[in-house]
Specification:
Elements lengths: L1 H18 L2 E7 L4 E8 L4 E8 L6 E7 L5 E5 L4 E7 L4 E10 L9 E9 L6 H8 L3 H69 L5
Antiparallel strand pairs: 1-8, 2-7, 3-6, 3-8, 4-5, 4-7
Helix pairs in contact: 1-3, 2-3
C-alpha cells in the first residue's frame, strides 16, 4: 500500500513539474532573427535547453535580454546546449536566435528546438539529494514543498496584478466620468452662448423685440 502511495505521489509530481515546461519548435530562415518572449516574476531560476540543426557554413547565435536591453546570456555558433540565469525583477524576457549566412551562400532553414524551464522544474533535485544525503522520498517531499511555495507566489502575483488592473479600471472610469461632465458643461455653456448671441443678433436686426 505504501509503495502505491509513493508511486502515485511520484506520478503527480512528475505531471505538475512537466506541465510548466515550455517546449517550442520553430524554423529559422537563413539570415533571419526569431525571438521568443516570456513574462517571468523575480527571483526565478531559468534554464533553457536548445538544439539547432546543423548546416555546413551557416552559424546561429542566441542572446537573452530583458525589457531594458540588458544581456543575461548569449553565445555564438551554437548547436546544442543550454543557458541559465536568475531573474532579479518581474520583467519581460526575450530569447532571440539569429542565423548568419556567408554572402556567397543561399542558405538553408534551421530547425530550432527550445525548452525553457523555470522555478522548480529548473532545479536539479537529484544533485541536491546526493549533496545533502537525502532519501528519494525526502527529495520528492522537498520538490513538492518548493512547488507549493512557487504556486503560492504565483497566486500572490496574480492577485497583485488583478488589484493593479482593478485600480486602473476604477481610475479610468473616474476620468471618463469627469470628462463626460466637463463635456456636458461645455455644451451647455456653448448652447447658452449661442442663444444669447442669436437673440442679440435678431434684436440688432429688429427681427424680435
Amino acid at each position: 500500500m505504501e509503495t502505491s502511495v509513493h508511486y502515485f505521489i511520484y506520478l503527480f509530481l512528475t505531471f505538475l513539474l512537466t506541465f510548466g515546461v515550455n517546449g517550442l519548435r520553430f524554423h529559422l530562415k537563413p539570415g533571419a532573427t526569431k525571438c521568443v518572449k516570456e513574462e517571468i516574476r523575480q527571483n526565478i531560476l531559468i534554464v533553457g535547453d536548445f538544439e539547432v540543426s546543423d548546416h555546413q557554413g551557416q552559424k546561429v547565435d542566441y542572446v537573452v535580454t530583458d525589457s531594458k536591453g540588458h544581456i543575461l546570456a548569449q553565445n555564438q555558433d551554437i548547436g546544442k546546449g543550454k543557458f541559465t540565469f536568475v531573474t532579479e525583477v518581474y520583467d519581460m524576457f526575450e530569447v532571440c536566435f539569429t542565423s548568419r549566412v556567408p554572402p556567397h551562400m543561399v542558405g538553408n532553414t534551421h530547425e530550432v528546438y527550445l525548452v525553457i524551464k523555470r522555478g522548480v522544474e529548473a532545479k536539479s533535485y537529484e544533485g541536491l539529494g546526493e549533496a545533502a544525503k537525502l532519501k528519494p522520498m525526502e527529495v520528492e517531499l522537498k520538490r513538492l514543498e518548493d512547488l507549493s511555495e512557487s504556486i503560492v507566489q504565483d497566486f500572490v502575483q496574480m492577485r497583485q496584478r488583478e488589484r493593479e488592473m482593478r485600480d486602473t479600471n476604477e481610475s479610468t472610469n473616474s476620468r471618463v466620468l469627469y470628462f463626460s461632465i466637463f463635456s456636458m458643461f461645455c455644451l451647455l455653456v456653448l448652447a447658452a452662448w449661442q442663444v444669447i448671441y442669436l437673440r442679440s443678433f435678431f434684436k440688432s436686426k429688429k427681427l424680435i423685440e
